[in-house]
Amino acid sequence: MLVATTMRAVVADDYGPPEGLGVRSLPVPRPGHGQVQVRVRASALNPAEVRVLDGTMRAIAPLSFPHVVGRDFAGTVTETGSGVSRFAVGDEVFGFGFPHTMVDLAAQVASPPSLTTGTLAEYAVFEADTPGLALRPTGLTAEHASTLPTAGLTALVLVRVGEFRRGDVVVVIGATGGVGSVLVPLLAAAQVHVVATASPADDGYVRDLGAAEVIDHRATDVVDEMVRRRPDGADAIVNLALPGDGLVDAARAIRPGGRLLNIVFPAPDTAAFEDKDLTVETVITSARPGDLDALAARALDGSLPVAISKRYRLADGAQACVHLLRNHTRGKLVVVGDEDA
Questions:
Q1: Which one of 82, 113, 209, 213 has the fewest CB atoms closer than 10 angstroms to its CB?
Q2: Residue 69 contacts residue 53 (beta carbons within 8 Å)
Q3: What is the mean pLDDT of residues 65-71?
Q4: Are 57 and 21 a contacting pair, CB within 8 Å?
Q5: What is the pLDDT of residues 76-100, one digit of tens each?
Q6: In whole angstroms, what is the distance from residue 44 CA to residue 331 CA?
Q7: How many whole angstroms separate alpha carbon 135 and alpha carbon 196?
Q8: b/e code 137-147 from CB counts within 10 Å (16+ = b)
Q9: If pLDDT is split at 50, 70 and 90, which confidence band does 2 have?
Q10: 102-159: per-residue pLDDT in tens?
């Protein structure tokens, strides 16, 4: 059997805007001890992995070059390194990984940390013994599976931290994005009353996800409208889109004792809420053992619908990164291997 020695990948050669990315040939990465090599079939994009390319976050999220973009994936194990017993050649897997230069950040998300050579490529190498990788069950497509890791794991953390109960009124700001495409269905399945912010063009989309009400954030002030609709306040606001300094006024729309949860950086300054009777918390993605399996099960039973707005071939992967950062995106953008396109 002929073993490939080179592959195509979406590559950054230095810090800069996504317009500087290119698709070119690199050596195929080989797995070392405790690692697996995967033929990538699909890779879903996340804003953070494109934003770090400009270098503004290099103090906490440094890169080395050439850097292969991409974190979330689904694919087939093609080679295993020594000491690997969890996976075998031919296994269908999915998950996520951080660049090796971000091992400190990766260690905050999963233990052991999930690291990769980059998923916008024909092949990628991952650490095998981490909750950031899981077997992809039969019936779950590679494309759908690739959308679940970062967005789904973030949504799971929000649900756990929020401790939402049946009948709670929860406002989701930025419900049309990748995390929203998982969070809104999870909340709806728990019989939480979801109020989503969305433009008229996305109204039907978020309602299909499970939103009970929609506020057009372009036509009205969301906080004013929530105060009008719920004078006693919502039980929680979950922010998936606004920078932290834009959330101070949101306290007006939350009931005493309620919660303001955030995933966006820069995070809100909790000191600005000291005179408010509410809990303010910024959460990051976290992968516990079994979390990816739980997300896959939800996808298989239909409670987490496919939320892919556009598909790109690997040859157009650099364009996909530009689209993600420069345009409004509903759900997820997915880059597929040419053989799967």
A1: 82
A2: yes
A3: 98
A4: no
A5: 999 999 999 999 999 999 999 999 9
A6: 10
A7: 33
A8: eeebbbbbbbb
A9: low
A10: 999 999 999 999 999 999 999 999 999 999 999 999 999 999 999 999 999 999 999 9
Q: What percent helix, strand, coil does the chain show, rounded to 5? A: 30, 30, 40
Report the C-alpha gap between 29 and 41 in whole angstroms: 16
The domain limits of the chain are 6-147+306-336, 152-282
Confidence category of residue 257, pLDDT binned at 50, 70, 90: very high
Tell me which fold the domain 152-282 belongs to: Rossmann fold (3.40.50)
CA dihedral angle for residue 256, residue 261, residue 265, residue 268, rounded to 10 degrees: 10
CB-CB contact of 278 with 254 (8 Å): yes
DSSP β-bridge partners for residue 23? 10
- The CA-atom distances, in angstroms, between 321 and each of 45, 63, 129, 202, 252 are 7, 17, 29, 22, 36
Residue 84: how many CB atoms within 10 A of its CB? 18
Of the candidates 157, 182, 140, 104, the residue with the CA atom closest to the CA atom of residue 288: 157
Q: Between vectors from CA 31 to CA 295 and to CA 92, what angle results, nearest 5°?
A: 35
- Using CA atoms, how far apart are residues 248 and 208, in angstroms rounded to an integer? 30
Architecture of the domain made up of 6-147+306-336? Alpha-Beta Complex (3.90)
**CA angle (30, 311, 119) in 5-degree steps:** 20
DSSP state of 65: S
d(CA 177, CA 217): 14
Tokens 């530009």, located at residue: 322
